[in-house]
Design goal:
The chain has 211 residues and is α+β, with helices and mostly antiparallel strands. It is built from four helices and twelve strands. Strand 6 and strand 7 form a beta hairpin.
């Protein structure tokens, strides 16, 4: 093998290794994302850039109430008719990808994947009741004054009285009347959560940790 071919192969190896390391970092450690909708207003606004923490995929630490997370969008079948809902089975459903390449491009590279960004309101085994424009967790009113606008109220014609199943979380957007969330499609399984929002890095005038 001459030196020219050897140098080319070495560059190819370096590029492959760098790509794999970048992919692993993006999947297991952290990745940037962009806010595309207004469902988390006023906490987050459209076109803001965020950093997602993904280390929970290694540590198995589950998100807690108050965390802002991103997760894979449920399939259309999850948007149930409000008059035909089972409050005893308040879970979203998803279209699973088949085939190695299909799964790699969708879950690994996240190409053509649609994600939602919402706030965790309740975790497994917690009893959620939405009534009188308020949220109650285990019969206690949830204090949301730190992140909801003063004129925001919470309603739900679909899931409004249920217990979050094991291995799931219940999430809603801060902009309740403009948010399509778990009130409509049900609770999200932990394995569909993609990241926990930790920092906002753009625009610079609001740079910092997300609360």
């Amino acid at each position: 093998m001459n030196d020219k071919v050897k140098n080319i192969l070495e560059w190819i190896y370096c590029i492959i290794i760098a790509f794999v390391l970048a992919l692993l970092f993006r999947y297991f450690i952290a990745t940037p994302t962009i806010v595309k909708q207004g469902s988390m207003f006023p906490t987050l606004k459209e076109e803001q850039r965020l950093v997602l923490n993904r280390t929970f995929r290694i540590t198995k630490k589950t998100p807690k109430v108050g965390d802002i997370v991103t997760f894979e969008a449920p399939n259309d079948e999850s948007f149930f008719n409000p008059y035909n809902v089972d409050q005893n089975n308040p879970v979203a459903t998803f279209n699973e990808k088949n085939g190695i390449f299909s799964r790699f491009f969708y879950y690994g590279l996240e190409i053509t994947k649609t994600s939602y960004i919402k706030r965790v309101i309740a975790t497994e085994k917690q009893h959620v009741v939405i009534k009188d424009n308020k949220v109650f967790i285990n019969d206690k009113e949830l204090d949301e004054s730190s992140y909801l606008a003063s004129d925001v109220y919470t309603e739900s014609d679909v899931y409004n009285d249920f217990i979050v199943p094991d291995g799931y979380v219940f999430c809603m957007g801060d902009n309740r009347t403009k948010s399509t969330d778990c009130r409509v499609f049900g609770c999200i399984p932990l394995n569909k959560i993609e990241g926990v929002v930790v920092y906002r890095f753009w625009p610079l005038n609001v740079f910092g940790k997300i609360k």
